[in-house]
Amino acid sequence: MGINLGKSKTTPNERAAEDYSNSLRLLRPLADFFVVNVSSPNTPNLRELQDKAALDEILGALQQVNEAGKCGNDSQPSARPLLVKVAPDLSFDALDEILELAGKHHLAGIVATNTTIARPGSTDEKMLRVYSEMGGLSGRPLRKRSTEVVRHIHAQTHGTLPIIGVGGIFSADDAWEKISAGAALVQIYTGLVYEGPALVRRIVLGVQRKLEQGGFKSLRDAVGSSA
Ligand SMILES: Cc1cc2nc3c(=O)[nH]c(=O)nc-3n(C[C@H](O)[C@H](O)[C@H](O)COP(=O)(O)O)c2cc1C
Fold it and tell me: Which of 8, 82, 115 to mutate for ligand 1's pocket (most ligand atoms within 8 Å of CB)?
């Protein structure tokens, strides 16, 4: 089980490192891995924490807690894998700055991506009303961009940093797009809402078929195969 950590809305960004690390101290015994969410558009100014200096401070504070022996009633004192979740709206240069922190802070991977603040062009009045709403947009309109981000991270890191691909996955084809672009794992959110839990089985079987058709021995061999 993974836990996704977000800063509290009421904590100013200057105290973000303390907020995230307090959460990790309390929650570390409960999860196998943690994702540092600095990319949700739904918490005001949260995405500013993707700035290299701010993220450097947060990850430093988190790893200090993570690597410091027992936390709470933690029976397993080992450090948990920490991943960072990024926004699809970051430029590739800004993404590269985040990747520069991966080695220094022993990141276990990147989750790409969160929801987008971008809106697709439309002439449909109903859609324009929906698109004018506040907050992050998930699902189909996000798929292509999140795959581009996965592909870029995979290329920049030469496939050395595990990527969890997420954004607009509704089928085995969509999952395969993320895997072949460089994702070692995929996450579904909106797809689960529209398709229901049977989607997981359809994706697993569909991906298995694609592995056989493509002559891949394992999923690992397919990661980044179209990159
Ligand atoms: C209602 C809603 C709530 C979300 N809450 C979080 C959150 O708390 N933390 C986070 O990192 N991402 C959050 N996300 C983003 C999703 O985890 C996912 O990255 C994004 O929706 C793209 O995937 P999808 O197209 O499969 O939904 C949320 C998305 C939605 C739609």
Answer: 115
The pLDDT assigned to 159 comes to: 96
Pick from 101, 90, 96, 86: nearest CA to 166: 86
State whether the beta carbon of 6 lies less than 6 angstroms from ligand 1: yes
Q: Does 8 participate in catalysis according to the annotation?
A: no
Span from the CA of 213 to the centroid of ligand 1 (angstroms): 32
pLDDT in tens, 161-206: 999 999 999 999 999 999 999 999 999 999 999 999 999 999 999 9
Alpha-carbon distances of 122 from 125, 126, 196, rounded to whole Å: 8, 9, 28
**pLDDT recorded at residue 12:** 94
Residue type, 34: F
Residues 100-106: contacts with CB within 8 Å, 24+ apart?
100/52, 101/52, 101/55, 101/56, 101/59, 102/157, 102/161, 104/56, 104/59, 105/56, 105/59, 105/60, 105/62, 105/63, 106/63, 106/82
Q: What is the DSSP string of 122-183?
A: ---HHHHHHHTSSS-B-SGGGHHHHHHHHHHHHHHTTT-S-EEEESS--SHHHHHHHHHHT-
